[in-house]
Design a protein that fits this description.
52 residues, single chain, mainly alpha, 3 helices
Amino acid sequence: MFCTQYAKKDWHQRLGGGVHADAIMDRIVHNTLWIETGDVNMREHSAAAAAG
């Protein structure tokens, strides 16, 4: 299981780019079940709820 706050489109660059990033991405991205949780930032949501 992989969990991240980063968008999939940014993973390759964050993994350093190049051949190693390609290999890691091949293993992670293909045949994967993606669960999108939306764009809500729970830290901001909780802070706004506490302030309001």
